[in-house]
Write a structure and sequence with these properties.
With 652 residues, this protein is mainly α. It is 65% helix and 3% strand. The strands form three sheets. The chain has a three-stranded antiparallel sheet with strand order 3-5-4. A two-stranded antiparallel sheet has the order 1-2.
């Protein structure tokens, strides 16, 4: 571990052995603290001067700041060779920035942990917050009292108070109400204006069987709020007191009751036309999308309705939150509804234009990630650039959920040419690691599924097996039934990829396809089973004999020449081949080129053979189609050999 920094208490630094680093004088430490507060952003030298000498900067203040920076660099990177640029405390433009790993700064790590717990289960939330709250050694930036330090201290204190309350919520969810009481009691005594704290304390006492104490706490909250702050208790405290007096407290009696009570409370509290309803809807749609086929279809339709409703209100910021908040992981590269996806992209672009260059970075990144994800398979240069920019912003902000959404966009845009499975594997590996650190279950599933695809393409079936098993375990734990569609398809493909006899491989595909029907994902379902069987027949050198009414879905242009050849309709097959477009930039790119190449060899179309060979050459080390995780047409190298041999033979 490199140098680490602490500002949750007196400002300090530790070397990789855990020993304190001598930061010299208070001005040196102030420079370091100010750069930490900027969280990786550049602080101009003039701003540093103003922050260090708020009242009367001396004549040599600029030179002094540069001297402080030079001294800090020697302390923080003692082994850096002379004249080699600093890697940690860097000069950039008009000022300086601290380019530290977010994990090495206690305040950054603390905020990331608190943010991540918003979407985790109670047990990991409790464990994560217990550890994070233990990082505090005193008031943040304890040894500085300048305005910038006061503002940052106040902000971090608010995050800490949120963490304390979120920890209490986790204890209540884990039926440990009595354990939550002592800390909540101290919390409301120190921060009597925190109504959520009072409500949590009353709930904890009630669930611990202390009904009278719970009512007493609510009376005390009412008196303190009125006497000290001149405020009446909010709606939450009033409703809670009424419920307790009626002996109908918030103690849950099961998921159904909790859901009904919460929905009723929401309907009672939030007016129908409120903007909050639209934003809350997006949160519900995220959950709905992973519940199964019906939920996914409903989420897809309602998402577009929510975007339209937001745009009608004429609020670009709200529209941006509604669009970008739907961060449902996407694994398949063919859209379920291309026209709808194009409309979502257009809405995202309108929101970006409406917000302009002053848009918050996180909002901009979510919109850019949406453009990248919803433009899947289009080969759009704009989508690729959007994915890269979203990822860069997310890394700069060190926001794990945002980075996960951006990386999903990066994955969708790694199909510019054949042979990029290794790049996608790297994206999957980063998603798995990111999700495991921050408790993002659906993101971790996505990462494992990406690695199933990529390792399959790279002929590493042992690793693909391990990732499929990991995805299944997480899906079972977090009730994500659609995952089994992809892991089941991978296992059917694996039967084919390991050289099983043709009848066994076909049976595996057909068995899996029973799940495929009605899966709620038309982009996956339509035409995929016939395509898988066609690829299997081509690999086994069998004719592409299929019934006339076979529904090839979007894959008809690449299947038709081979099907016509099998029916001995050579002239029509040649015409169909000449009309065959280049495959879309998606998971089936290599497989479709292999089918085109096979038809070109059979029809002696040298131009198409050359195009197929050039397109497939970068993927010579991959297994064609296995990158989809659902089908394969065998090693790309075998198809390249066939194309090369045919071209050589014709030229001779």
């Amino acid at each position: 571990m490199p140098v680490s920094f602490g500002v949750l208490g007196p400002v300090t630094a530790w070397d990789d052995a855990g020993e304190p680093v001598d930061l010299k004088g208070p001005r040196h430490r102030a420079v370091l603290a100010r750069l930490i507060a900027a969280r990786g952003r550049v602080v101009p030298v003039g701003q540093l001067v103003d922050d260090l000498w708020a009242d009367d900067p001396p004549a040599g203040a600029l030179s002094a700041v540069r001297t402080f920076v030079a001294a800090l660099r020697r302390r923080l990177e003692p082994d850096r060779p002379p004249r080699e640029p600093a890697r940690l405390l860097v000069t950039e433009g008009p000022g300086y920035a601290l380019r530290a790993d977010p994990r090495t700064v206690d305040a950054w790590r603390f905020e990331d942990t608190v943010t991540a717990t918003a979407e985790t289960l109670p047990r990991p939330t409790l464990d994560g917050l217990d550890e994070a709250l233990g990082w505090w050694r005193g008031p943040a930036y304890a040894d500085f009292d300048q305005p910038w330090a006061h503002a940052e201290r106040t902000r971090l204190d608010q995050v800490r108070l949120t963490a304390v309350e979120r920890r209490a919520e986790a204890l209540l969810a884990l039926d440990r109400a009595a354990d939550a009481v002592p800390d909540l009691d101290a919390h409301v005594a120190a921060h009597p204006w925190r109504e959520d704290g009072w409500a949590l304390l009353a709930q904890a006492l009630h669930r611990a069987g202390r009904q009278a104490d719970a009512l007493a706490v609510l009376r005390r909250a009412r008196e303190l709020l009125r006497d000290r702050l001149g405020l009446d208790p909010g709606a939450r405290l009033r409703r809670l007191e009424t419920d307790l007096l009626r002996q109908a407290g918030p103690e849950p009696t099961g998921p159904a009751r909790v859901w009904a009570d919460t929905a009723a409370a929401y309907a009672r509290s939030v007016v129908p036309g409120a903007r909050a309803r639209l934003e809350s809807t997006v949160g519900m749609l995220r959950s709905l999308a992973v519940t199964g086929p019906g939920g996914l279809e409903a989420a897809r339709d309602q998402r577009e309705a929510a975007i339209a409703a937001a745009e009608q209100l004429g609020d670009p910021d709200l529209t941006a939150r509604v669009i970008g908040g739907y961060d449902v992981p996407a694994i398949w590269t063919r859209s379920d509804d291309p026209a709808q996806a194009a409309r979502v992209v257009a809405a995202a672009e309108r929101a970006l234009a409406g917000l302009g260059p002053q848009a918050p970075e996180v909002t901009r990144a979510r919109l850019l990630a949406t453009v990248a994800i919803e433009s899947r398979g289009t080969g759009s240069a704009r989508a690729g650039a959007a994915a890269r920019e979203a990822a860069a912003i997310a890394r700069r902000l060190a926001d794990p959920a945002l980075l996960a959404q951006a990386l999903n966009g990066v994955f969708m845009q790694t199909f510019g040419r054949a042979g990029l499975a290794a790049q996608r594997d790297a994206v999957g590996a980063e998603l798995v690691a990111l999700a495991a650190r921050h408790g993002l279950a659906t993101v971790e599933i996505l990462g494992h599924l990406i690695r199933v695809q990529a390792r399959g393409a790279l002929a590493d079936l042992a690793a693909a097996d391990a990732h499929a098993e990991a995805a299944d375990r997480l899906a079972a734990r977090h009730e994500s039934p659609l995952v089994a569609l992809f892991t089941g398809g991978y296992r059917a493909m694996r039967v084919a990829a390991t050289g099983a006899a043709y009848p066994d491989a076909e049976a595996a595909y057909r068995s899996w396809a029973v799940r495929l029907a009605g899966c709620g994902m038309p982009g996956v379902e339509r035409g995929l089973l016939p395509l898988a069987l066609l690829c299997l027949r081509v690999w086994h050198d069998r004719p592409a004999a299929f019934p006339d009414d076979t529904d090839w879905g979007p894959y008809a242009p690449w299947a038709r020449p081979l099907v016509l050849l099998a029916a001995d309709r050579r002239r029509e097959a040649g015409a169909a081949l000449r009309r065959t477009p280049a495959p879309p930039h998606d998971l089936l790119l290599e497989a479709l080129w292999c089918l085109t190449g096979r038809a070109a060899v059979a029809l002696d179309d040298r131009d198409v053979m050359r195009r197929a060979r050039a397109a497939l050459a970068p993927a010579a080390h991959e297994v064609a189609g296995a990158g989809s995780g659902l089908l394969t047409v065998g090693p790309v190298s075998a198809h390249l050999d066939r194309l090369t041999a045919a071209l050589v033979e014709r030229s001779g």
